[in-house]
């Protein structure tokens, strides 16, 4: 008997440890085949043996249910004869805890009849027996669960209350009943559409600079400018509307303050720079043509003896000199011929778009292209000019804007005059 129980209980515990799915439902019927052990108090002279039984139940609510029961036991008499059979039949009231969970423990109490048959049964072979106990159901599926129960059973034998213990495991098979109500999904009211607030327009920025800022009457200065978040720009006096960034040459005859004004959706921005002009030295009258040539030479010398941005542009990833910029390079060649002591370099620069290593090589090739052109077309000694490419390493404007990038893509002439 004990060996049989040892085999039954581990199997039941293993099944209870499995993954489950559902809980107790109101209005369902159920059938439960069970097997286990039944132990008698010593004075009954009956040994522990297997019990086989069945349960038929109905859930009045999720918590409260009723079951009809029937058990069959063939206990051993103390003398070793097996001629006693016991039947137990009756009903129980069950109260479920946590009925919506997969694991549902419960308590039970009920009343049944104990009927003993056999040659050694007493003259009174049917007794009324009360019972109470605990149990648990573990749902592996909404239509199948495992159950385990323990009951303390009491009945009056020969004017003495006798105690028995029944412990079983089995299956719980529910069926019928209404499907559980599905809780409606609460849908939150749609929020009111957020008011779209247009961002405030960004105030424009402007920058203007003159190189050089001190000239002799008749010489030129280069005005360079840039802007951001602007729609239109102008320079006063005398120049008027200009691009959003660029440069131009001016030759004021007196001290002049230039003002760059740029307007955009965010307002207006201004930047000022001044060019100081000193009187040219008095010279002997000369024919008009030579005077013009001398003034032009002086203007070029004054301009190119300091770092100067040349007005020359290249096609994307190209180094060829376009015909439109040959006059600009001719001026540089004339300057070098008229100033034989001047030495310096042609410097190439790019914006930050693309691979830095490739930009370094491109700026070097462009600087060498300009150097070769001047040496070839102006007959200047090659030892007086070097070429150097700096790529994106020396920006003069912000690479985050198109105007800034255009300004950074440049060729500079950097010569010193003794």
TrEMBL record:
Cell division found in the keyword field = no
Please indicate if the UniProt record lists Transport as a keyword: yes
Q: What is its main location?
A: membrane
Where is the signal peptide, in residue numbers?
1-22
Q: Which UniProt keywords apply?
A: Cell outer membrane, Ion transport, Membrane, Porin, Signal, Transmembrane, Transmembrane beta strand, Transport
GO MF: porin activity
Annotated ranges, domain OmpA-like: 301-418
Q: What is this protein called?
A: OmpA-OmpF porin, OOP family
Q: Which organism is it from?
A: Trichlorobacter thiogenes
InterPro entries given in the database record: Bact_OuterMem_StrucFunc (IPR050330), Beta-barrel_OMP (IPR027385), OMP/PagP_B-barrel (IPR011250), OMP_bac (IPR006664), OMP_myx_plus_Proteobacteria (IPR030820), OmpA-like (IPR006665), OMPA-like_CS (IPR006690), OmpA-like_sf (IPR036737)
- GO CC, any one term: cell outer membrane
- CDD domains cross-referenced by the UniProt entry: OmpA_C-like
Record's bilayer topology term: Multi-pass membrane protein
GO biological process terms, semicolon-separated: monoatomic ion transport
Spell out the subcellular localization from the entry.
Answer: Cell outer membrane
């Amino acid at each position: 008997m004990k060996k049989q129980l040892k085999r039954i209980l581990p199997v039941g515990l293993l099944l209870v440890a499995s993954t489950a799915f559902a809980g107790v439902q109101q209005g369902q019927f159920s059938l439960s085949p069970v097997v286990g052990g039944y132990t008698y108090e010593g004075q009954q002279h009956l040994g522990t043996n297997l019990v086989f039984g069945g349960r038929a139940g109905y859930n009045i609510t999720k918590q409260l249910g009723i079951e009809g029961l029937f058990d069959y036991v063939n206990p051993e008499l103390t003398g070793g004869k097996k001629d006693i059979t016991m039947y137990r039949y009756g009903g129980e009231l069950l109260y479920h805890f946590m009925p919506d969970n997969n694991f549902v423990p419960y308590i039970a109490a009920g009343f049944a009849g104990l009927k003993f048959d056999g040659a050694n049964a007493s003259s009174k072979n049917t007794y009324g027996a009360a019972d109470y106990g605990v149990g648990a159901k573990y749902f592996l599926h909404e239509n199948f669960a495992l159950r385990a129960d323990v009951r303390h059973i009491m009945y009056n034998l020969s004017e003495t209350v006798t105690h028995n213990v029944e412990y079983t495991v089995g299956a719980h098979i529910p069926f019928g009943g209404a499907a559980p109500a599905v809780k409606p999904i609460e849908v939150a009211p749609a929020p009111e559409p957020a008011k779209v607030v247009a961002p405030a327009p960004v105030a424009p920025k402007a920058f203007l600079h003159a190189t050089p800022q001190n000239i002799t009457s008749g010489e030129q200065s280069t005005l360079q400018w840039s802007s951001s978040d602007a729609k239109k720009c102008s320079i006063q006096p005398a120049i008027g509307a200009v691009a959003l960034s660029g440069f131009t040459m001016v030759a004021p005859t007196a001290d002049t303050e230039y003002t760059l004004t740029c307007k955009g959706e965010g307002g207006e921005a201004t930047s000022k720079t001044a060019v100081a002009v000193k009187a040219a030295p008095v010279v002997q009258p000369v024919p008009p043509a030579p005077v013009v040539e001398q003034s032009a030479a002086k203007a070029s010398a004054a301009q190119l003896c300091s770092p100067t941005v040349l007005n020359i542009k290249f096609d994307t990833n190209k180094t060829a000199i376009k015909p439109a910029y040959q006059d600009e390079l001719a001026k540089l060649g004339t300057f070098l011929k008229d100033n034989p002591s001047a030495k310096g370099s042609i410097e190439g620069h790019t914006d930050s778009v693309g691979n830095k290593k490739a930009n370094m090589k491109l700026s070097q090739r462009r600087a060498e292209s300009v150097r070769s052109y001047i040496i070839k077309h102006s007959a200047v000694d090659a030892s007086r000019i070097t070429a150097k490419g700096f790529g994106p390493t020396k920006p003069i404007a912000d690479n985050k804007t198109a105007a800034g990038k255009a300004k950074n893509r440049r060729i500079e002439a950097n010569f010193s005059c003794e």
